[in-house]
Amino acid sequence: MDAALGIPAGFERHDRRSPMTEPWEPLYRRLSGDTVVLGLRAGPPHCNSRGFVHGGLISTLADNAMGLSCVRRLGEVASLVTVNLTVDFLGSAHTGQWLEFDTVFVKPGGTLCFTQAFVTADGQPCARANAVFRVVKKAMAA
């Protein structure tokens, strides 16, 4: 898919849109077991004034990947709310690089879901994120 853009095999256009991520489109996803791996070919709209992919974009997409993965893992959940998010920047990412946001479950539970995301730029580590999500079940959300 999108071979001309250098999109890796297994990735497809991410079908969930939001006003927050709309300026960063196109976003891609790969379903991998019970996780959603997000992907992005970095371009000028993703970068700060120094030409590096902005840390806010990395933080947001790591949060999205972890939240989407929690919903996929936990199933019948109305929504999740991020109650804690930390990001460690391990390296930089630049225009033209392929970024992947991959989730690892630390402790998924019925009330709280603890996760980590590892972010790579062309396969090299650029960030690690940790998040805790509050699980809001359908009965509570009504």
TrEMBL record:
<dbReference type="InterPro" id="IPR029069">
    <property type="entry name" value="HotDog_dom_sf"/>
</dbReference>
<feature type="domain" description="Thioesterase">
    <location>
        <begin position="51"/>
        <end position="124"/>
    </location>
</feature>
<dbReference type="InterPro" id="IPR052061">
    <property type="entry name" value="PTE-AB_protein"/>
</dbReference>
<dbReference type="Pfam" id="PF03061">
    <property type="entry name" value="4HBT"/>
</dbReference>
<dbReference type="InterPro" id="IPR006683">
    <property type="entry name" value="Thioestr_dom"/>
</dbReference>
<dbReference type="GO" id="GO:0016790">
    <property type="term" value="F:thiolester hydrolase activity"/>
</dbReference>
<protein>
    <submittedName>
        <fullName>Thioesterase</fullName>
    </submittedName>
</protein>
